[in-house]
Design brief:
Blueprint lengths: L2 H15 L3 H20 L5 E5 L6 E5 L2 E2 L2 H6 L2 H25 L5 E10 L2 E6 L2 E5 L15 E12 L2 E7 L3 H11 L1 H4 L3 E9 L3 E8 L6 H6 L4 H9 L4 E6 L4 H9 L6 E5 L4 E5 L2 H8 L4 H10 L2 E5 L1 H15 L7 H9 L5 H4 L4 H8 L3 H49 L14 H4 L7 H5 L22 E2 L2
Parallel strand pairs: 10-11, 11-15, 13-14
Antiparallel strand pairs: 1-2, 2-3, 4-5, 4-7, 5-6, 7-8, 9-10, 12-13
Helix pairs in contact: 2-4, 5-8, 9-11, 12-13
Length: 468
C-alpha cells in the first residue's frame, strides 16, 4: 500500500466521517495483523506499525522484517474486509460517543416515516426512533413534519447506533422552559421538580436565587406568552407552575392549588401527608380521576391523601377500634400510632420494630407478634376486598344475563321493549358526572374513598395556571 495513498485515505475518513485519524491507523494495523496471522499461522508473532505522518508500514513476523512486497502480498482482500469492518466500528463508536453526550438534550428532527408504531426521525445524517411508548397520547406525526424531543437513550446495535427519542419525559418540559425563560437558562430561576402525565397535565416547581425576581411570574410570562409556547409544543398539555419550598408544610398546599388546604399532617415514618380541606375544595384537591393529588404527590415526594376533618376523625376512630383487636396492643400505643399516621393494618404491618418498642416498651417477641397479626389482618382485608370485587362482577354479569333473557322473551312474543324518554332521567341518572364513563355509571359500585374519587377540576385542559 502506497504511504501517500494511505495518508489520503485516513485524511478523507477524518474529514468526511469525523473519525479520529488515530482510530483509523489503529484499525488498519489490527487488520494487517489479522491478515498476516492467517498467512503465517495463528502462532506467529506478528508486529505491524504504521509510521504516523509518513504512512510507511513496518512489519515483522517472528522477528524477521518483511519487505514492502511481502507486506503487499499479505492477504490483501482479507485485510480490506477487516479494514472496512474496523472502520464501521470506529464510525459507530464515534457516533455513540457524540450522542451519548447529548442524552437529555432537546433536539429537532424531521419525521421520515412511521413503521409499526415507531416514528423514524431524521437528525442530520443519522436516524433516530420515537417509540409509541414515548409519544404524547393522541399526537400524529406526518412525513416531513418537524418534531422536537429529548434524546432518551443511545446504544450500540451491531455496526449502527440506536438513538431513542422521547416526548413523554419531564426532561422535555424542563428543556422547553429553558428555551422560553432566559432566567432559567441563566440559572437565576431553578426548576426544582417536575411531575407529568404526558398530554394531559404537568406540575413544575420553581424557585429563584434572586428574591427580586418572581419565579412563577417569569415562567408564565407577559400575558402568559411563555407558558403558552411550552403548552403549544406539548399538544395543549396543561401546565401548573408551583412555587417551591423545602418545607413540605408549605410545598404541599402550593402543589394542590387551586384547592385551599386548611392543614397538613405529616406522617414521617411512612412518608404520608394528610391534606385537610373543606367539602367545597375536596373535588379540586383530588382533581379529575385523582390527577391533581397524584401529580402533587410525585412533585413533593410524599404520599398525599386528601380528607375532610370529619373523614379523618372517622378514620382515626376505625383505626383505634381495629388496633385494639390485636393481642398485646394497649390504648396508649394505639393512640400514638394513629397520631403518627398509622391508620390501617397495612400501615402497621410495615412499621419499624424499634418504633413499637419505643412506644410501648415491648419485647422483641411482642413486637413480632403485633406485626404478624397486622400482616394477617391486612391479608384478610385484601382477600375480602378481592372477593367483594369478584362478587360485584358476578352480580353485574347475572343482571346483564337476566336482562338479555327478558328482552329475548319479549322479542319471541312479538313485543317491542319500551325505551324510556331520555329527557326524563331518574334522579340517580341525573347525578352521574358528565365526565364519568358510561360503563362506570352503569355499574353500582360501593362509594370510593376520597383519594380515588374522580372529581373534575374547574380549569379547562391546556389552560396555563399559576400556583403557589
Amino acid at each position: 500500500m502506497n504511504p501517500q495513498d494511505l495518508l489520503r485515505i485516513v485524511d478523507s475518513l477524518h474529514r468526511e466521517k469525523q473519525i479520529d485519524p488515530e482510530l483509523v491507523m489503529q484499525a488498519i494495523e489490527a487488520a494487517l495483523i489479522t491478515a498476516a496471522k492467517r498467512q503465517f499461522g495463528e502462532e506467529a508473532e506478528v508486529d505491524i506499525h504504521i509510521v504516523r505522518g509518513v504512512g510507511a508500514i513496518n512489519a515483522t513476523v517472528d522477528g524477521k522484517t518483511l519487505s514492502q512486497d511481502e507486506i503487499g502480498r499479505i492477504g490483501a482482500q482479507t485485510a480490506k474486509q477487516v479494514i472496512i469492518q474496523k472502520l464501521k466500528e470506529a464510525e459507530r463508536d464515534a457516533r455513540l460517543e457524540e450522542f451519548h453526550e447529548q442524552v437529555g438534550q432537546l433536539i429537532t428532527g424531521i419525521v421520515q416515516r412511521t413503521e409499526k408504531g415507531l416514528t423514524i426521525v431524521q437528525l442530520g445524517n443519522v436516524e433516530a426512533i420515537l417509540p409509541k411508548s414515548e409519544q404524547i397520547p393522541g399526537e400524529a406525526y406526518h412525513n416531513g413534519s418537524r418534531v422536537r424531543a429529548v434524546i432518551y437513550e443511545v446504544k450500540a446495535a451491531g455496526n449502527r447506533v440506536k438513538i431513542i427519542l422521547s416526548r413523554t419525559k419531564g426532561t422535555l418540559v424542563q428543556r422547553l422552559f429553558e428555551q422560553e425563560v432566559p432566567e432559567i437558562a441563566e440559572g437565576v430561576i431553578k426548576i426544582n421538580a417536575i411531575s407529568r402525565e404526558p398530554g394531559y397535565r404537568s406540575k413544575v416547581a420553581v424557585s429563584s436565587t434572586d428574591q427580586r425576581i418572581d419565579c412563577v411570574g417569569a415562567c408564565v410570562g407577559m400575558r402568559g406568552n411563555r407558558i403558552k409556547n411550552v403548552t403549544s409544543e406539548l399538544a395543549g398539555e396543561r401546565i401548573d407552575i408551583v412555587r417551591w419550598s423545602d418545607d413540605p408544610m408549605v410545598l404541599i398546599p402550593n402543589a394542590l392549588q387551586p384547592a385551599q388546604v386548611e392543614q397538613v399532617l405529616l406522617c414521617d415514618m411512612i412518608g404520608r401527608a394528610i391534606a385537610l380541606v373543606n367539602d367545597e375544595h375536596l373535588s379540586q384537591a383530588i382533581g379529575r380521576f385523582g390527577q391533581n393529588v397524584r401529580l402533587a404527590s410525585k412533585l413533593c415526594g410524599w404520599d398525599i391523601e386528601i380528607m375532610t376533618a370529619p373523614e379523618l376523625e372517622r378514620q382515626i376512630e376505625r383505626a383505634m377500634e381495629a388496633f385494639m383487636q390485636i393481642d398485646g396492643m394497649t390504648e396508649e400505643v394505639a393512640q400514638q400510632l394513629v397520631e403518627q399516621g398509622y391508620l390501617s393494618f397495612d400501615d402497621l404491618s410495615v412499621i419499624e420494630p424499634e418504633a413499637l418498642i419505643e412506644m410501648g416498651g415491648y419485647s422483641e417477641d411482642q413486637v413480632n407478634s403485633i406485626v404478624e397479626q397486622a400482616e394477617d389482618r391486612a391479608s384478610e382485608q385484601e382477600a375480602e376486598e378481592e372477593a367483594r370485587k369478584r362478587q360485584d362482577k358476578l352480580d353485574k354479569e347475572r343482571r346483564a344475563s337476566e336482562e338479555l333473557d327478558r328482552l329475548e322473551k319479549l322479542e319471541a312474543a312479538g313485543k317491542v321493549p319500551v325505551v324510556a324518554d331520555q329527557s326524563e332521567a331518574s334522579v340517580e341518572e341525573a347525578q352521574v358526572p358528565i365526565d364519568q364513563p358510561q360503563e362506570e355509571a352503569a355499574a353500582d359500585p360501593a362509594p370510593a374513598p376520597a383519594l380515588e374519587s374522580g372529581a373534575e377540576s374547574l380549569e379547562q385542559p391546556g389552560e396555563p395556571r399559576v400556583e403557589g
